[in-house]
């Protein structure tokens, strides 16, 4: 039932019957983030051996999966709300993308968490739950983990850009900016922002967004949707503590996300989606650096193989994202100056 293309009903049953802590038993020695410790970890009674991972505490797993179910409900409410919206269209998605997106939404509360695995190695909690516990194919578990990792990057990006902080499109890129972008550009001019400064800001944002897309690859849309659903129901340290997890309904549509709580979030993530088009970044994950290894070696003959060589290749990618119309010769001049010690 969990392996089907639409496992949401299974999660409704599992969470309402409080079976999630059994089926998705969390590993010990999780490296919790501070805000998660406050919400999901509780003191143990003196005479109870804690099943959790923090000395003298236990993990309130029902709270974790209750929050996960809420993210799933948020996701489907948003999908229903955005039907017919060209920006968030899912018509061209592969079936696997939608299935993996739902798994990711359910596990959103533990996105990016690691635990101390075999021989003390830091390992992904998400991959453990989906691979070791649920026995999904390793590739599926890794892709869900990737969706969640990138979702955290999107949430950080939206926070960095802030309200109205979405950059206008590059002057060289075809496509009309939104009204919000035009207003921001006008505000920059009113504040005396120079064209050079504005271009530098655009380059920074293009590089930041481009690196996220290169990491996500074809799953970038799924990650964006999960990030948006998680942001609508974001848990904060000031949120009331769980004493009794909310039991989701067994049937029927998920509760609609209130407009007052979702409108601004959807607008912020729409701006990210539009920025991908403005900056011409769709498919950027398939684009290699301007210079291959042999070309780099010809420019930097003293460059050793290993981490330093990788650093040069990574710097090329950053340069390429910041200079979408740059040429190989310009990139060659850049790395020769940037890594002059190896020339």
TrEMBL record:
* GO biological process entries: tRNA 3'-terminal CCA addition
- Where would one find the signal peptide in this protein? 1-24
Keyword RNA-binding on this protein? yes
Question: Does the record's keyword annotation contain Signal?
Answer: yes
Comp. bias (Low complexity): 236-245
Reading the lineage from the top rank, the first entry is: Eukaryota
What are the entry keywords?
RNA-binding, Signal
| GO molecular function term, any single one | ATP:3'-cytidine-cytidine-tRNA adenylyltransferase activity
Mark out the compositionally biased spans (Pro residues): 246-255
Renumbered to this chain, region (Disordered) spans 161-201, 236-255
Q: What is this protein called?
A: Uncharacterized protein
